[in-house]
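Lab notebook, bench 4. We co-purified these components, and the gel suggests they stay together. Before we commit to crystallization screens, I want a quick structural picture of the whole thing.
Request: model the full complex, all chains together.
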Amino acid sequence: MSPLLEMCGIAKEYPGVRALADVTFELRAGEIHCLVGENGAGKSTLMKILAGALAKDAGSIVVNGQNVALHSPTDAQAAGIGIIYQDYKLVPELSVAENIFLGQEPTKQHSPFIDKKKMHDDARKLLAQLGEEIPTDLTIAMLSVAQRQMVEVAKALSRHVTILAMDEPTASLTEHETVNLFRVIRQLKSEGVGIIYISHRLEEVFEIGDRVTVLRDGKVVLTTEVAQVDKRRLIQSMVGRELEDEFPRAELTRGEEILRVEHLHAHRLHDINLTLYKGEILGIAGLVGAGRTELARVIFGADKKSSGRVVLEGTEISPDSPTDAIRAGIGLLTEDRNQLGLILQMNVRENISLASLSDLLAGPFISRGKEEALAARYVSELNIRPHDSSMEVEKLSGGNRQKVVLARWLSTDAKVLMFDEPTAGVDVGAKYEIYTSINRLAQHGIGVLVISSDLPELLGICNRIAVMCEGRVTGVLSRDEATQEKIMTLATMMN
Amino acid sequence: MKSFIPTRSGSLPFTLTSELGIGIAFVVELLVFSLLSPYFLTTENLLNVSLQVSITAIIAAGMTFVILTGGIDLSVGSLLALAGILTTDVLKLQLPIAVSFPLAILAGLIAGALSGAFAGALITRYNITPFIVTLALMTVWRGIAFVYTEGRPIWELPDVFSILGSGRLLGVPIPSIIMIVVFVASHVALTQTRFGRHVYAVGGNKEAARLAGIRTSRVFMQVYVLCGFLAALSGILLASRMNSGQPNTGLGYELDVIAAVVVGGTSLSGGRGSILGTFIGAMLIAVLRNGLNLLNVGSYVQQVIVGVVILLAVMLDRKRSC
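Here is the predicted assembly.
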């Protein structure tokens, strides 16, 4: 039996750089084929070519034994290829149902009008398959990141794809939602759909993958049955060298109290009490919707609190805006770096300096020299690639974008830094660099708060882990007592 | 993402490369007209063009800031008339000219800035879109201008007032000099100061800018105040040139101004653009009108040609940014 999809000798060159060279990739029906590699290895380029969004320079694509020419996304759809991108392609102003059926809206026979009832019913059915109960008339803008993802999956399902590529589908999902997604993926697999699964979480490759292909610098360095490799070998192939450990070890000594939250109430937050110490990394665990992001935003002055106190270094603060919070010494790296973190039209240098321009002034003017020096320092310190601070951030990969946001906050002299999902969509190498930076911050006496849905990550880097559930802190565990099971128990105890 | 990124070829700074397309178009235009009309390339004609363009160009500088934040200001044409009226009316007061002259100009400029502040406040406090706010203000200011003057021009002004609009310094019309000063100052403010950086940031991604610690409401206020101020400045220069305050001046100017900004490559959705681009955009349209006049092209046909050129310029810009 011929494979479902064969991509042979695919090459793609951008002016001056070879993005893909002689890449061969094969997908069988009913197979989950994982595609891994560091940011910039060529995964996204390969997927864009498969999606018809990017023209290849050389090579052939064969679907079901037939040569196909994919000149546009429409061609790809006609060939049964569906792609779920990492940055979702949904229209925020349209409803869930309208997004799912965008471009293929159901109509009653011979009627120009959309059959809204059928559209909403079908949308509900598709979501039910995913175990989701999102009201189909809500607009996308009202949904959480995790819910948007589910809508994306439903949208692909509605298009009866035989080849489904998913780019980092679990990046912002909780354990529970991930389990759910895997159930759906296995279901699709059993129906004969071929699935290309791109992920930075290697555990997932072992959990769900049949085969795995590793890309490095635009070339395939390994294709094998998942059963025949271990994690170490995969990482080695990805980075091209041995990586000691997933999490950098650091000796952290907890100093005096730096931030205290007392009886804090706000929208979706109830009676939060928390203390953060200098030189400590405090993790915040919980399911999506537990109020973790809301808590960080209230402390940061981005949203209003209704009652309670936030005490920084012994003095009560009540920031009305992020400007006030930053001035007081608090920083927040937001979850959605593209929507809430970066100014994509600006270059790396301008994004880094945005929160610390007042330190870079010479008279009324921004000192270009000081600004360049600041940017150059962080580009090399954090290894932001390419090493060019005049690059527009739009052209950077996820991991490097995150480093740019990190650099912005490192340059603000913050006393407390809060990270919301700092490694979502970030590859192994860049993750390690981000952990190292977080450790270094704590070693310099900064209070660090890390919100993450990646439990191994929290267990790997935090001194203590506070667990939230439905807007309350349900428990605080020390590094020694914390286990995934204990965290999950606390995270679901209200349900 | 190292291996992925096409490195930008050459080492031209960003501000130059982005205006390159429109700059070339402008140069081509200059060449064509200088070949077609012997009078075109004379100093006198070029100074004349600079005088003609100065009124809309000065406002376009302010409008660039507004559009960079993703906003728009439709009230500038009406504001121009209102400022001219206020200024000329103060000049008619029975005061020594040494007092009334600066007072009159101050009155006009303050009115412009206040109008901008009012627009900014409505936009930020009540969250009304700039288009609606300034569309309403456009009508309100125009109406007030007519009510205030009862529809009649304000005449018989002190002679010294006409110097602003009609005088020359070292042979260069004073409005042209003011225009250059405004553009240089705007360029510096936009590229070298914190305010300028905040304008780009707010226009690029308002929420991200807020979360980076920028007081976004303040930035919006500032750009509308600046735009109103410059519209008033233009209004005073125009009143001086006509030596009268007229309630019906500046009708439709907002569209000429916006055209100049857009032709100059500034994105209507905010975050991208430059003052240099706006300058070239304004000049391109002004030179086109002047050249067509010299070639005796009728004014009806001119309108068609100008519209087509605006479209072509913007298409050229799209092509470049792809």
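Residues 97-125 of chain B form the longest helix (29 residues). Worth comparing against the SEC data before the next meeting. The beta strands of chain B are 168-169, 172-173.
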